[in-house]
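Internal tracking record. Fields below are filled automatically when a chain is submitted to the structure queue. Please do not edit lines marked as system-generated. If the sequence contains nonstandard residues, flag them in the REMARKS field before resubmitting.
Queue: standard
Priority: normal
Entity type: single polypeptide chain
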Amino acid sequence: MYTFNFEKLEVWPKSRLLSKKTYLLTQEFPETERFGLIPQLRRAVISVCSNIAEGSSRWSKKEKVHFYNVAFSSLMETMNQLILANDLKYIDNNELSEMRSGIHIISMILINLTKSMKSD
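SYSTEM-GENERATED OUTPUT FOLLOWS
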């Protein structure tokens, strides 16, 4: 089976797992969030792994960095929305802490990946 470049990046499977965890968490949100926080949070988290994949396919370093920056921004948007979900009692402190830990790791990898692109 052929493996694409984005699948070889350390950050992509971590962001994919974050997406899965977010989808599972949001399944438990109240029905009133069906058109509010649920789709917004899901779009933000999917954008992380999608932009990592898209960035890895670009030829120029400048384009790669652009997409990795978009992924980072979507990651911060995800964190913001998870904090709000905690404020609204949709997720508990332990769930938020677990998600925050994964987001922190992904953010550090993205920062280092972007720095490595800029320094080459």
